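Late entry, evening session. Most of the bench is empty. Finally got around to the prediction I had been postponing all week. Sequence below, unchanged from the version circulated by S.P.
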Amino acid sequence: MKVGAIIQARLTSSRFPKKILAKIDGKPVIQWCVENVLKAKEIYGVIVASPHKLPIKLPVRVFIGNEKDVLKRYYDCATKYKFDIIVRITADCPFIDPKIIDLAVKYYKSHKYEYVCFAPVDGLDVEVFSYALLARANFNAHAPYEREHVTPYMRMITKLSVDTAEDLERARRWYELHG
């Protein structure tokens, strides 16, 4: 199983444009992020997925994809690089921890979940999901929020808390499978 980390990056943040190029101790935020992801042992490949060419050199490939539809950008990137398992990271997380990435991937591999999220602190969050789930989300998610943020559709269809009657049915099905 090919595990690929896809780091989503853009320069057009409305709150802080070009934030991934801002420097910490002389290095751009995105470079810190990439270097930390590269230290993860459970990752086969690391790709930065951006809607535009980045003005800095990084030690990984950059995939240029759809600007507004980040979900499609992820799907197209994972398809191109033939990743079976995708690790989602955002480029504005300079302190992403390779040990948390490895823990999340190992947990994902050892369970029957299609989607796993480890988020001990904002900025250390890691999401892991199957290519099949990414494809399903790409073809079934239609709301602008689902297209812009990659995983809302996945979280909705894999959630186990019970807030609605539909959630209760999903929980019952999960119980029947995993009891």
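Two things to note before I forget:
The radius of gyration is 16 Å.
The mean pLDDT is 95.
Will write this up properly tomorrow.
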